[in-house]
Amino acid sequence: MKLWLFACLVACFIGAWMPVVHAQGAFEDCCLGYQHRIKWNVLRHARNYHQQEVSGSCNLRAVRFYFRQKVVCGNPEDMNVKRAMRILTARKRLVHWKSTSDSQTERKKSNHMKSKVENPNSTSMRNATLGHPRMVMMPRKTNN
């Protein structure tokens, strides 16, 4: 009897708890406050940032800076935060620009090498010497 009562109690608890969890939705990673007095020498080591807007369970506009081991929340109105955002955006653009230009260069090189390999009649130095009349292939002498 006690086991039956315990099972009913657990079922009621789970039934009452599930709609609350479902109503909250997905877990959001929010800044609940600002890190005051963020110095520029700290922010310059940030790897990335994300602007948090007021929505759902996040009720504070903030900028989250991602470092190697931690996340720091900054006030979007702070001058150091604005400066760090500008520099990180420029850094992202530069890295993206370099990666696309490098991939285009590699693509050009690989296409160039394909054309040399696929076309054996191309006028490369190797093919020019094979057909040269002064170049004669002599069999090797073997010592018995």
TrEMBL record:
Species classification: Eukaryota, Metazoa, Chordata, Craniata, Vertebrata
Sequence similarity: Belongs to the intercrine beta (chemokine CC) family.
UniProt xrefs under InterPro entries: Chemokine_CC_DCCL, Chemokine_IL8-like_dom, Interleukin_8-like_sf
Protein name: C-C motif chemokine 25
Keywords (A to Z) from UniProt: Chemotaxis, Cytokine, Disulfide bond, Inflammatory response, Secreted, Signal
One function term, GO molecular function aspect: chemokine activity
Annotated compartments: Secreted
Any single biological process term in GO: inflammatory response
Signal peptide start-end: 1-23
Pfam families linked: IL8 (PF00048)
Alphabetized SMART domains for the sequence: SCY
Record region (Disordered): 98-130
GO cellular component labels: extracellular space
Boundaries of every Chemokine interleukin-8-like domain copy: 27-88
Biased composition (Polar residues): 118-127
